[in-house]
Amino acid sequence: MSFEGAKYLWMNGEIKPWAEGTLHVASHVLHYGSGIFEGIRCYDTDDGPAIFRLKPHLDRFYASGIPYKLQIPYSPEQLESAMCELIARNGLTDCYIRPIAYYGYGKLGVYPRGLPVDVAIMVWKWGAYLGEEGLKKGVRIKFVSVTKLHQSMMPTTAKASGNYLNSMLAVSEAMEEGYDEGVLINRDGNISEGSGENLFVIRDGMIHTNDENSSILLGITRDTAIQLARDLGYKVEIGVLKPEDLLSCDEAFFTGTAAEITPIRQVDDHVIGAGEPGPITTELQNLFFSVVRGKEPRYRDWLTPVQVAQPAGS
């Protein structure tokens, strides 16, 4: 991944050149992973670029800070304005948006009381997270040996920086063995999620996914897929997913802001269905991309328009 199109970023209330997005080596977040972040996408539509489901992403961003007593010193309106300005300043239409808030420089005791909370926003062009071919033909994944951290250990519904060390181990194992992604099993022996995606399986026309008791992040794209599937008339069951559910299903797919809706065609040495995206996955994926491109009036309220004209003096 390169940071294509990234000329400017927003940091603590100011637009700065990309190269100035730095922090001190003694910053608390660097030593303890004490940050929270979001992944958001902006899509080009016939009416110009629009940010997809910005409000629930911002809601989760603020909620992620609560268990860590990390208070974001900016309002949601300020962050929304900053994102729009930043997209415009970078001259982008389709792009990925990464806001992050973290405990900064001041002291290095583990207890962060009194430390400043720094906030930054980055935007850049980022294509299909699991590859364009994976998006079209499906990805190969494996069950990894890494156990998903349990919600009693760390709040898994918070999108916290430190949680992703668990994910890094999982995806590293999978990719080093020639797969596109890994699936983590939780301590109860059930499926949790991918390293950065929620997981769905389809069997006999019914769609199944798991809930927060499976130590998952409650993904915004997961919620989108559930709503779209139900609007298409499919029944979606939310509960426990066992490894055998994935191995015996007719279709399977990942959801995530970066991954969007990506079909799964193989798990370990087991081929899912016909080894290609199934009809329900394809229907759901097609609707999803139609929605994010503003072509479905019913879902227009999920889009926040961005003014792309360059600000004066830029």
What does this 3D model show about the protein?
The protein has eight helices and 17 strands. The protein has 314 residues and is an alpha+beta fold. The protein has two domains: 117 residues, D-amino Acid Aminotransferase, Chain A, domain 1 (2-Layer Sandwich); 166 residues, D-amino Acid Aminotransferase, subunit A, domain 2 (D-amino Acid Aminotransferase, Chain A, domain 2). The strands form two sheets. Strands 8, 9, 10, 11, 12, 13, 14, 15 and 16 form a nine-stranded mixed sheet that branches. The longest helix is centred in the N-terminal third of the chain and has 14 residues. The C terminus is likely disordered.
Summarize the SSE layout with pairings:
Blueprint: E1 8-11, E2 14-17, H1 28-32, E3 35-37, E4 40-45, E5 48-52, H2 54-65, H3 76-89, E6 95-103, E7 117-124, H4 132-137, E8 139-147, H5 164-176, E9 181-185, E10 191-194, E11 198-203, E12 206-210, H6 220-231, E13 236-239, H7 243-247, E14 251-256, E15 260-267, E16 270-271, H8 279-292, E17 303-305
Parallel strand pairs: 8-9, 8-15, 12-13
Antiparallel strand pairs: 1-2, 1-7, 3-6, 4-5, 4-6, 5-17, 6-7, 9-10, 11-12, 11-14, 14-15, 15-16
Main sheet overview: 9 strands, mixed
Share of helical residues:
25-40%
Radius of gyration: 20 Å
* Count of helical regions: 8
Shape: globular
- End-to-end distance: 27 Å
Annotation keywords:
314 residues; alpha+beta; D-amino Acid Aminotransferase, Chain A, domain 1; D-amino Acid Aminotransferase, Chain A, domain 2; 2 domains; nine-stranded mixed sheet; eight-stranded antiparallel sheet; 26% helix
